[in-house]
Amino acid sequence: MAAAAISHLRRGAQRHARALLFLSTRSFSSASGVAPLAAARRLLSTSVDSGASSKGENYKPPLFDPFRAANLASSAPPLESPPIEELHDDAIPPEVEDSGPPAAPEKDPVACQHELDGLKAWVEAVRSREESTQEKEAWSLLGRSVVSYCGTAVGTVAANDPSAASQMLNYDQVFIRDFVPSAIAFLLKGEGDIVKNFLLHTLQLQSWEKTVDCYSPGQGLMPASFKVRSIPLDGNSEAFEEVLDPDFGESAIGRVAPVDSGLWWIILLRAYGKITGDYALQERVDVQTGIRLILNLCLSDGFDMFPTLLVTDGSCMIDRRMGIHGHPLEIQSLFYSALRCAREMVSINEGSNNLIRAINNRLSALSFHIREYYWVDMKKINEIYRYKTEEYSHDAINKFNIYPEQIPSWLADWIPEKGGYLIGNLQPAHMDFRFFSLGNLWAIISSLATQKQAEGILNLIEAKWDDIVANMPLKICYPALEYEEWRIITGSDPKNTPWSYHNGGSWPTLLWQFTLACIKMGRRDLAQRAVEVAEKRLSDDKWPEYYDTRTGRFIGKQSRLYQTWTIAGYLSSKMILDCPELASILICEEDLELLEGCACNLNKSARTKCSRRAAKSQLTEAPEVIRANAVQLLHPAMFRSKQSWSVEYSGGEQRSPGGRRKKTLKYGNALKLKD
Ligand code: GLC
């Protein structure tokens, strides 16, 4: 009887929330129109009240939660899809009509189906692979790290280290960024449910009200992590209910918002759709709203002069002060990747045209900015070395007023003849010349870097193997901050001493991202070499979080053991190495359409060049080659036979109904794909 009443109440609450969603999607037209959407989603969410949370007084639970108001017993929150309703991109400022592509490239259903069939065959290949003893151990550990909420798997804990049980800090939580390699490992093994649950539960957390000293960050913010807590039901010491308790940075060290969480969420959502074929998930109205809230936060107007995202120090994997405030590469690469993924997933309707246009404009401006200003190699450093300063004009060469004296002494000897990399950060009058692995790797994976730059980055890693890989792949950044720099920049952080943790420590979780980048660039050999290095130690060392010293010889001083993203990263790397076509769920190829057409009105003859046109001129490959690379749809059987696939460019031009030009690519085996 009571159960029936409870279930009725819950259904009532859902109806209430859905009605609100309907209302909100229909009738709010201002930038603040996203608030009711979020409010509606909050009603579909579970909550924990501030008293129950260890996070205490700064945490503000949803204003009204009908589930808790009704003293409900534990059970999974509703995650079924609300009815599909058209979304309006209210918060995206209307833009002038431009000649740029109005929408994401059309998906060809035949090509999509072919891609899905190919991926499914690869997943089967993964499942039937012979696993090494180390992989078996890793799978068993990964299984043990799974966190359940109301009986369903929703994520994996950051670390499961019995030796540090008394000092878990927040390592017993599910971190959004840490879960990504776990999710990839599960997806590659054909286990999509945990990933779907994770995506939907974190989506519900997105719209919680969060405050730090009475100030609330934007609504699209995704938590850094969450924990499942059991709290006693009111007035009953024996019955408990489970609640999800998120941390948006309001209890994290330094109180920094995790800017990367939402970006990772979008990247994972696309990967999930690609490999499972469950596109219905990304089409759901609440999921579309989630994507839009994240994008609204990233694309909203501010004081910025650059297309790069302006963030505070520690807003990503490096979540402590390390001098990466401003426009750090890691955030820019993930931002670019998330925009590329979102562009494929945003439902196309009249209401989303402005959003898609905003995404396109940002993508092309961002790629130009990074390719042009972040790239350094021998030639560029020599140019900077001879820079004139104090140039005041539109056509200044040294646009950011970089004083050549800031070229660090280590760089002159370090930069190889062949290759180069994207610097860590660019600010007015400041270039951070440190090499950051994650940002460089994702610039390759997402095609933020040009083909030539991507090759250059891998060439540099190869040439500097002893600095970046040595005894454990890979250094989070190179070189470490030492002496006075360490004291001032890290704030004398004892965890970030030189060649430790974020300050030049070696993080095995970077291995899966390195593998992806290598596979994309046809450098499987490099990835294989790195995996072999890691394999020599990871299991014996009990899967540490990070390694210390200049060459990564010691297990990190404060490193957790049995760190989940070390384990999952290793597994994902092994599977991608053996079944490289699976890398396509995370990779984005160069998109030439992005470089066509622009709203900036700068014509070819102007002294100040349009960045889109300039970006196009940065390409060194013929467009046909790039397009050919973009459509590698190989079947496991084809890969095994090591057949070489000649790509024939038909040169044919067609016009789509919308008037956009289409060219047809023809594969030698009669596989036909449209670009
Ligand atoms: C450390 C890392 C961070 C990671 C967390 C959980 O704080 O810096 O990137 O998400 O541990 O593993």
From TrEMBL:
Q: Does the keyword Kinase apply?
A: no
**Known EC number:** 3.2.1.26
Task: Specify where the region named Disordered lies, as residue ranges.
Answer: 74-108
Reactions accelerated catalytically: Hydrolysis of terminal non-reducing beta-D-fructofuranoside residues in beta-D-fructofuranosides
Q: A Gene Ontology CC term for this entry?
A: mitochondrion
- Keyword Hydrolase applies: yes
One BP term from GO: sucrose catabolic process
Q: Which domain of life is it from?
A: Eukaryota
Keywords, A to Z, come to: Carbohydrate metabolism, Glycosidase, Hydrolase
Q: Gene3D superfamilies given for it?
A: 1.50.10.10
GO MF terms held by the record: endo-alpha-N-acetylgalactosaminidase activity; sucrose alpha-glucosidase activity
Compositionally biased residues, Low complexity: 74-84
Regarding protein family, the annotation reads: Belongs to the glycosyl hydrolase 100 family.
Question: What is the purpose of this protein?
Answer: Invertase that cleaves sucrose into glucose and fructose.
Q: What is this protein called?
A: Alkaline/neutral invertase
Organism annotation: Leersia perrieri
